[in-house]
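Q: Is it fine to ask for two folds in a single conversation?
A: Yes, each is treated on its own. Send the first.
Q: Here.
A: Result:
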Amino acid sequence: MVEAWPPRAAAPTMRGLVGESLAVLRWEVPPLLDRLGQQLAGLATHFEVAAAEGPTETFGLAADAHGVRVVAAPEAPAVVVRTDRATIAALLQGHLDLRGAVLTDRLYLLGSLQDVRRLLASLDTWLHGAVRADGCIPLLDRFLESSLGSSLGSSLGSSLGSGR
């Protein structure tokens, strides 16, 4: 069997990208990360993110006095989130909002109404921070390139870079 040359770089993991985005928010927009931490404090979350190719990724988020961090998926989560990379890309590009993602089952949430509402508020906070922090643009590009074969710049035109 002949391997392709040059070898393709492994797609960035969702766990890694979410972790990097939290670090960027900690550096660039600390009040937003503080709000995210307050929204997630004590809420055990389990994320399952399907890819077009490859295995479904699972991870969790934990928030406490030390901040928000990506962790192994908890065994007894308060909320389970199931989605795919295409849905996350649509949310990040503004082609879909959280309400639409939930109503069309592209973002499936399982948990009590109170916990699901807390998680949705935190996802909204993260989305708003991720698309506004300059340091997240390269992360968004890597995610979109690995998920859809396009980048933020090619999806949104030059509007994001025009003010810098």
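Q: Second one now.
A: Result:
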Amino acid sequence: MNQNKLILFNCFKTLFSYFSNKNKKNNILSNAIRVDGNCICSLCGKKYSKHPFDYDFLSSECLGNYPYLNILCDGTRVKL
């Protein structure tokens, strides 16, 4: 009986984690802004296009699974 409870608990934990991550990703996507890659970051002085990609967000497989959001120094995600 205890093993069944443990299996059930792990299933719920996995589902909760999945939906929590999905909600987090949807929130990030809804707050991402479209900008020109030549804009200058107010914190580091580099162009937005020189900031790292967010590899949690990839284009569809037919487009090559490339990252399409950059992460600015303040944590903002931008689509160039």
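Q: Anything structural to flag on that second result?
A: Two points. Helices lie at 2-31. The two ends are 54 Å apart (CA to CA).
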